Amino acid sequence: RRFNELVQYHMILGRKYREQAQYSACRASFRNVMVMVLDTNSAIYKEAKANYDACDTMLEDRF
Fold it and tell me: Are 49 and 13 in contact (CB under 8 A)?
């Protein structure tokens, strides 16, 4: 149960960082979820990967 709460915490934090245009922190937060979950077929991993890629793109567009 604690593990799932931690995963959800990082997902929420990542979304918050994305809304605030803090893309490197956003990327790190979603990367944490991807490392924690490890199952590339799970829905939460896929969502984290999509958000990670979006933050990565936004970060690259800034420079």
Answer: no
Which is it for the CA torsion 53, 54, 57, 59, positive or negative? Answer: negative
Please tell me the pTM assigned to this model. Answer: 0.89
User: Which residue segment(s) compose the domain that 6 sits in?
Assistant: 2-62
Q: How confident is the model at residue 59 (pLDDT cuts 50, 70, 90)?
A: confident
The total number of structural domains in the chain stands at 1
* 3 phi and psi angles, rounded to 5 deg: -60, -45
Residue 23 Cα distances to 5, 27, 44, 52, angstroms: 23, 6, 19, 9
- The SS3 call for residue 41 is coil
Count of other CB atoms within 10 angstroms of residue 63 = 4
